């Protein structure tokens, strides 16, 4: 029998059992009253809930750690989006410089203005990239601590504020476009490394979040199985057996 069939069979049996208990227990009570009536817990059940308290607490801690990892992934993606944008602008600047180096006398004021606009845009991106008011690229904050359960993982923030310090701002034919292009080529190489680094960092935090969620689900299911295993109700014992055989029947929402 498939897992889906077992689940449907268990739910149908539990539903039938619940309805039977409602009508047999107190025919004068309404259906809603019967459903809302508090059931007396057995000593074994209360003991199981107490013993599994640490497990459920650890599961809650892991869920919070997962949310923190998601936040770390979001921060890394914001930086990665900015580095990709900067890289695109740098490559456009490089193309302008290479064309100018081939024929310096053909450089127009419009091309110089375009180059300087790209340069200003890069600086604006560096100064404006932030997350919840935290600057991410201008060197104000060297790192952000991401709490991952019982330990913290630092998210290193690179200072990009001086990235264009060695790249001249062309002003006319007297500029050494060839030298500027060579310098800019080195800057592009470093930026490509940073771009890949933050892309990998975003992926890593995302993978950690998914892994931690799976750990919390395992703990939740283990706690629920222990609690169900102490029940005296035959139908709940049947559900416990089904849970024991079908590892992922109960979700973390229970």
Give a description of the structure.
There is one protein chain. The chain is mainly alpha-helical. It is built from seven helices and four strands. The chain folds into two domains: 3-59 and 214-245, no CATH class; 77-204, f41 fragment of flagellin, N-terminal domain, CATH 1.20.1330. The chain has helices spanning 3-25, 31-36, 43-51, 53-102, 109-128, 177-228, 234-245, and strands spanning 130-131, 134-135, 143-148, 151-156. A hairpin with a 2-residue loop joins strand 1 and strand 2 (134-135). The longest helix has 52 residues, at 177-228. 22% of the residues are buried.
**Low-pLDDT runs:** 243-254
CATH-defined topology of the largest domain? f41 fragment of flagellin, N-terminal domain
| Radius of gyration, taken over Cα atoms and rounded to an integer in Å | 31 Å
Helix proportion range: 55-70%
User: Number of DSSP strands?
Assistant: 4
Tell me the domain tally.
2
List keywords for this structure.
about 250 residues, mainly alpha, f41 fragment of flagellin, N-terminal domain, 2 domains, two-stranded antiparallel ribbon, 4 strands, elongated, disordered C terminus
Describe the SSE topology:
Layout: H1 3-25, H2 31-36, H3 43-51, H4 53-102, H5 109-128, E1 130-131, E2 134-135, E3 143-148, E4 151-156, H6 177-228, H7 234-245
Helix pairs in contact: 1-7, 3-6, 4-5, 4-6
Summarize the structure.
With 254 residues, this protein is mainly alpha-helical. It contains seven helices and four strands, in the order H-H-H-H-H-E-E-E-E-H-H.
